[in-house]
């Protein structure tokens, strides 16, 4: 078995409303210093846990000592249920957080990372577990969906998008960010559209220093 395969485990877990969902855990070489849960883009447009952005982050962050967890929302792949407009999917995300808690990682700092629709689901959460030390919103589709400023929690949050993203127009995102309080960061990457094809490493390189700054701030 290769080193990469030895660090990967396919898992089944429960959403907080009882559906069985499928996911993949990727462990670092050493005991993890944190966890990252990665939520995928829109299920009705082909989004799943094997998306290029999700895959890249899931594989890259263990190099920095993070256990990463990607999963399929309800109705995608082997996950039970069907699409529920983001509302039902919050139960899936909360189930992923609970799963890591139940498997021994409750005391590690957790970073919730959502790409596109996954970012929308994160913003719909009513509360955040105490373990969540940062939120990463990759290309949140603010040009298509309503992101309510009052739903964002008092948690360090990084927004990352490209200046050619038609689903996350920079002026829309800046307007949202300007209404938020607290530790909010916005990174706009030139020449990148919503899909990040061929530019995934740029995304990783943008996220890494922000995560490190969050960990220093939380220590």
List keywords for this structure.
about 30% helix, alpha/beta, Rossmann fold
Notes on the protein architecture:
- By secondary structure, the protein is of the alpha/beta class.
- The protein has a single domain (3-218), classed as Rossmann fold (3-Layer(aba) Sandwich), CATH 3.40.50.
- It is 31% helix and 23% strand.
- It has six helices and eight strands.
- It has helices at residues 3-6, 52-60, 87-105, 117-124, 170-178, 200-218; strands spanning 8-14, 20-26, 34-39, 66-71, 110-115, 132-138, 157-162, 184-189.
- Strands 1-2-4-3-5-6-7-8 form an eight-stranded mixed sheet, sandwiched between helices.
- α4 (117-124) links the parallel β5 (110-115) and β6 (132-138).
- α2 crosses α6 (200-218).
- It is globular and about 40 Å long.
- The N and C termini lie far apart (37 Å).
- 42% of the residues are buried.
- The mean pLDDT is 95.
* CATH topology grouping: Rossmann fold
In round numbers, the mean pLDDT is 95
Shape: globular
Q: If you compute it from the alpha carbons, what radius of gyration comes out, rounded to the nearest whole angstrom?
A: 16 Å
How many strand units? 8
| CATH homology superfamily name | Alpha/Beta hydrolase fold, catalytic domain
Low-pLDDT ranges: none
Run of helices and strands: HEEEHEHEHEEHEH
